[in-house]
Each structure stands twice: as C-alpha cells, then as structure tokens.
Amino acid sequence: MDKEIGKVTHYFEKVGVAIVELSDDLSIGDEIHIKGSTTDFVQEVENMQVDHKEIESSKAGDEIGLKVNERVRPNDLVYLK
Known about the structure:
The chain is mainly beta. It has strands at 3-12, 17-22, 26-27, 31-35, 40-44, 48-50, 53-54, 57-58, 63-67, 77-80. The protein has no helices and ten strands. Strands 5-4-10-1-2-9-6-7 form an eight-stranded antiparallel β-sheet, with no helix packed on it.
C-alpha cells in the first residue's frame, strides 16, 4: 500500500517541475506515485531542490521542487511506493 507523503501545489510546465508540500520524508532514489483526477504515474526521485539548491533528502513540512516525468496538477497527491 502506498503511503501519502505530500501534495502538489504548483507545476511549472516549461521546466517540468512540481512544487510539493511534504507531510513526510523523501529522499533521492525513492520511488513515488503521483495521482490525481487525470494524473497517474510512478517515477524515481532523481532531482529535488529547496530554494534552488540541490538536496539529497527532505522532511515533513518542507516545500520542494521536484523534477517530474509527466504533467501534474495542483492538489495531485504524492505517495511513497
């Protein structure tokens, strides 16, 4: 069963980056599932940033920039696989 760890708040289409508000920890290499009314895909976390700085891991309460493989929408949920 996937564990909900965050929610998409914004999406920047030109750079393919989602802003995710985390409710749990997330690290590079983790596999995530992003799901919404028209969104549903799985990917590995390869790139995360906070304030335009590369980070290896983040914790609950952080708002991160996450490179995503497909288009996402605000309020899509992020699950840890």
